[in-house]
Amino acid sequence: MAIAHSVLDFQSYSTDALNAEKIQLIESSVAQFGAPLLLLDCDAIRQQYRALQQALPTVTLHFALKPLPHPAVVRTLMAEGACFDLATTGEVELVQQLGVEPERTIHTHPIKRDSDIREALAYGTRVFVVDNLNELEKFRRYCDEVELLVRLSFRNSEAFADLSKKFGCSIEQAMMIITMAKEWNIRIKGLSFHVGSQTANPQKYVDAIHACAALMQQVVEAGLPALSTLDIGGGFPVSYNSKVMPIELFCQPINAALKTLPETMQVLAEPGRFIVAPAMTSIASVMGSAERDGQIWYYLDDGIYGSFIGLIFDDAKYPLHTLKHSSEYFASVLSGPTCDSIDVIAENILLPRLDNGDLVIAKMMGAYTSATATDFNFFKRAHTVVLNEEVVDQERLLG
Ligand SMILES: *Cc1c(COP(=O)(O)O)cnc(C)c1O
């Protein structure tokens, strides 16, 4: 089970104080909207996107909507000139409504219903992903309209989510798919992989890039049409309670591996978490407290079934803060609001004495939080407040 924070974790982060400006913003937002809240800062989205683009200068970044499919994120990234990675019809509808040009999108779910394919095609997406013959066959009737990527599987036991267990094929299976595609007149554009989310070791990408390069060589030697594209997926890590490598260092060996590919190779990536994780801060308030077994239990209005669901599904350790300063600390439990016993955010952490209505802040809450939150027990999901969305302001100015 995923009880997250030890005493040490909390102390190291509670002293990393929120600055006065941030505290003022938190308090005014709660005064205006109540709690629980998620503050979504579009400036942070821009910063992360630019940092990754700078770290991977030859790669076309397709933001994967899955970790935070929020319209303000899509609009902010549109203004940055980003491309998008879609996986479902709902995501297609969102980018369509916001006016994203379909040429800027790829559809990367390896398993689709015919209706999903049709709706993405009707919007104008042309690039899809397959990892098996059953899926390839679905594209026979659309062979004039599509270009496919074949997704490979490279297992990664170190990642938060080893996406190569559920999706992707072996090199041998990929050869079979590419061979069959030629027979069925379906154009294979290239290869893709996802090394797993929150991958701390760039070597995983390097190994995968080299394996793909070898497969591309094999394709040409077999007399099959040459592949033009390599999609290196998502997985780029962010610092939660423990620090990861700065992104420009992380990407150095990846860039070196990409340099070994033919110069004409088009390279894509599908970052999700890296773009959005630092952009959201959650605010919960204390609903009540009780002393049990020598600890003070604080019952918050957000928890495991809400914004903190990533403690279970995503293994993420979010940095926690209170706004109270005190010389006295007590062993405490931060609990979510529902009547379920697993709804506990942190146990045995040292906190100042909190009163009802006091706020508990969590940082790095942008990825796989609100996207997967539920309203179990009818506790409403946290309301999202969008900050620094310049795009909309500019549109308003232009009338
Ligand atoms: C989830 C997902 C992503 C994003 O992964 P991150 O680890 O959040 O960067 C990218 N591509 C595909 C196909 C995915 O399923």
From TrEMBL:
<dbReference type="Pfam" id="PF02784">
    <property type="entry name" value="Orn_Arg_deC_N"/>
</dbReference>
<dbReference type="GO" id="GO:0005737">
    <property type="term" value="C:cytoplasm"/>
</dbReference>
<dbReference type="InterPro" id="IPR022644">
    <property type="entry name" value="De-COase2_N"/>
</dbReference>
<dbReference type="InterPro" id="IPR029066">
    <property type="entry name" value="PLP-binding_barrel"/>
</dbReference>
<dbReference type="InterPro" id="IPR022657">
    <property type="entry name" value="De-COase2_CS"/>
</dbReference>
<dbReference type="GO" id="GO:0033387">
    <property type="term" value="P:putrescine biosynthetic process from arginine, via ornithine"/>
</dbReference>
<dbReference type="InterPro" id="IPR000183">
    <property type="entry name" value="Orn/DAP/Arg_de-COase"/>
</dbReference>
<dbReference type="InterPro" id="IPR009006">
    <property type="entry name" value="Ala_racemase/Decarboxylase_C"/>
</dbReference>
<protein>
    <submittedName>
        <fullName>Ornithine decarboxylase</fullName>
    </submittedName>
</protein>
<dbReference type="InterPro" id="IPR002433">
    <property type="entry name" value="Orn_de-COase"/>
</dbReference>
<dbReference type="GO" id="GO:0004586">
    <property type="term" value="F:ornithine decarboxylase activity"/>
</dbReference>
<feature type="domain" description="Orn/DAP/Arg decarboxylase 2 N-terminal">
    <location>
        <begin position="44"/>
        <end position="277"/>
    </location>
</feature>
<feature type="modified residue" description="N6-(pyridoxal phosphate)lysine">
    <location>
        <position position="66"/>
    </location>
</feature>
<keyword id="KW-0456">Lyase</keyword>
<keyword id="KW-0663">Pyridoxal phosphate</keyword>
<comment type="similarity">
    <text>Belongs to the Orn/Lys/Arg decarboxylase class-II family.</text>
</comment>
<feature type="active site" description="Proton donor">
    <location>
        <position position="339"/>
    </location>
</feature>
